[in-house]
Every structure is written in structure tokens, then in C-alpha cells.
Specification:
Keywords: Membrane, Transmembrane, Transmembrane helix
Organism: Microlunatus phosphovorus (strain ATCC 700054 / DSM 10555 / JCM 9379 / NBRC 101784 / NCIMB 13414 / VKM Ac-1990 / NM-1)
Structural class: mainly alpha
Number of domains: 1
Radius of gyration: 23 Å
Helix content: over 70%
Largest sheet: none
Protein name: DUF4386 family protein
Order of helices and strands: HHHHHHHH
Length: 269
């Protein structure tokens, strides 16, 4: 797959369209982009790990997908299992935090790779990526941390009542909406932007879409979460491969240029 020149030095994160800046990027810029793409691939894998550990702690997540419900009895059962497996639930919380952190450079890497070749889809991926990151941190506090706080309540009935009121609060649902927007839209938008920028092939683009569709339709489970994570990671991996090849080519060209300059200098002397 042909690698296109990538602007690693130039336009504002918010620029839409415009001519491509083919300024030769520095080795440091290429290394940062490579690191960002590694983080992009790590994000679904760490998210999957957090999801599976969470389901282990909550004892939920059937193979065909978990159907969420509401009600005091279900909340009480969930709190009881979290309390009994608090260490596992806390591990899931830390993994979810790690996924939110590595998503930040991952979103920036997508923007860097696609801003010139697919400006509109790149901007769509950036906006939904910001929603993903913001939503992840809201989710960390509103779900993982909040459940741990409620489990620690001495009055379990009061904790259940507070939990039910929280789920019914309109403002809370609005604040939570960026998480849903980011989770549902960032990955397909990023795949479209990368495909249109020729950073990934068509099969990889389709694989990301199929993985996202499986998760959206079937819900999170011990089966669908790994399917989504693996499909997304494998689908986006060609972007990293392309970047590594481009960096290797640039390094070889720089070495050849340095050799030629050295040789020319010796001849002149």
C-alpha cells in the first residue's frame, strides 16, 4: 500500500481542507505519530480487558450479550457482587482509566494522519474522538467510581435509592451522552478517514465497521467484547504498518543523503 506524505508539522488541529503541507517531518514527529498509533491500537484492547474484568466482578455478560435492566432488585444484586469482588472491580476501574488515557494520543494520531487527505472525515473523527475521551472520564466517575462509593454506603437501601435517582436524572443523562457518541461513532469515523487517506485498505475498513456493528447490536458480553476489540485493532493495524514503513524509508533516504554529502565533501577535498 502506497504511503502518502503526512503533515506532522503544520496546520491547526481544527483546520478543515486546504492544500497539503509536504514539509519534511522530523524524526521526532514521526516517532510521536508512531507512538500515537500504538496507543490507538491499545485503546480497544485495554477497553476490552476492562470490560471483561468488570463483567467478572459484576458476574454479568452472557455469551450472547448482556441485556441491561433497571430496578431495585437488580441494583441490589449488582452491589452485592461488586462488594464481594471489590478488588476485581477496582482493577476494572484502573484498566478503564488506562484506556481513556491511551485514547488521547490515539485520537490525535488519527487527526495527524488524515487531516490533509480526508479533512471532513478527519474532523468528524476528531470531534467524536473528543467525545470519546471526555465521555470515558465521565463514565469513570459516573459508573466505576460512583458504584464503589455507593457500595461503601452503610445503608444499602439508601444506596440503591440514590443509584436509581441518578439513573433517572435528566442532566446526568445529558452529561453522559458524549460517551455514547464517542463509543458508537469515533471508531467508524476514524476508519473512514484512514481509509480515504489510504492509511488502511478496504478490508480493514470493513472489519472495523463489522466489529462496531456486532457490539452495537449484541451488546457487551464475554464474546462480543473480544470480537469488537480484535476486529477494531486488526482493522486499524495497517495504519501503523504504513507509518513504520514510511519512517523506515525516510530514515534510509536520510542516511543515503548524508552518505552522498560525505562522499561529495571528500571528493572536493
Amino acid at each position: 500500500m502506497e504511503a502518502y506524505p503526512v503533515n506532522l508539522t503544520g496546520p491547526s488541529l481544527w483546520r478543515i481542507g486546504g492544500s497539503m503541507n509536504t514539509t519534511k517531518p522530523s524524526a521526532g514527529s514521526r516517532q510521536l505519530l508512531t507512538a500515537g498509533l500504538v496507543c490507538l491500537l491499545l485503546t480497544p484492547l485495554v477497553t476490552m480487558a476492562a470490560d471483561i474484568v468488570r463483567m467478572m466482578a459484576e458476574r454479568s455478560g452472557a455469551l450472547v450479550g448482556m441485556v441491561s435492566g433497571t430496578g431495585a432488585d437488580q441494583t441490589a444484586a449488582m452491589f452485592a457482587t461488586i462488594e464481594a469482588n471489590l478488588g476485581t472491580y477496582q482493577l476494572a476501574s484502573w484498566l478503564a482509566l488506562a484506556a481513556a488515557i491511551v485514547a488521547i494520543p490515539g485520537v490525535a494520531a488519527v487527526r495527524t494522519l488524515t487531516a490533509d487527505r480526508s479533512p471532513r472525515w478527519s474532523m468528524a473523527a476528531l470531534i467524536t474522538g473528543i467525545c470519546l475521551v471526555i465521555g470515558e472520564f465521565v463514565h469513570l466517575m459516573g459508573y466505576y467510581a460512583w458504584n464503589q462509593i455507593l457500595v461503601a454506603f452503610p445503608d444499602r437501601e439508601a444506596a440503591i435509592a440514590v443509584s436509581d435517582l441518578t439513573q433517572q436524572n435528566v442532566f446526568g443523562l445529558v452529561v453522559f451522552s458524549p460517551y455514547l457518541i464517542g463509543v458508537l461513532l469515533f471508531w467508524p469515523f476514524a476508519a473512514v478517514a484512514l481509509w480515504r487517506s489510504r492509511a488502511i485498505p478496504i478490508w480493514a475498513f470493513v472489519l472495523v465497521l463489522v466489529g462496531g456493528l456486532v457490539m452495537t447490536v449484541a451488546g457487551s458480553s464475554y464474546l462480543t467484547s473480544p470480537v469488537w476489540a480484535i476486529a477494531t485493532t486488526v482493522g486499524l493495524a495497517p495504519a501503523l504498518v504504513t507509518q513504520l514503513r514510511s519512517a523506515r524509508t525516510a530514515a534510509n533516504n536520510s542516511a543515503m543523503a548524508a552518505t552522498e554529502v560525505s562522499t561529495s565533501s571528500s571528493v572536493v577535498r
